[in-house]
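Quick start: what a row looks like.
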Amino acid sequence: MYKIISILALFAFASFAHAQSDGNTYLQFGCDQCHGRVGQGSGAGLRLAPAPLEFEDFADIVRRPYGVMPAYSPKVLSYEQLGRIHAYLSGIPEPPALDAI
């Protein structure tokens, strides 16, 4: 019984850690305010998902953006956090085709 509880607790923690590593960092830094809750873009920010830029290009733009987006230095947004945001955006599936709706 103890093994089953331990395995379930580990699974629950891993699921929570995965959720933390994805959308929460994106929301924590307010990316959704301009880019939409799932990176769909808006009048204020470009579409980021699905299929964001490669990580290196993505990180360069976040560090040295153009337009009105503020720059996020490593002191504000670590590379680990930036990686979690990129992982979240990379995991967003393509929307269904219009003719399938």
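That is the whole record. The longest helix spans residues 2-28. Residues 1-21 have pLDDT under 50 and may be disordered.
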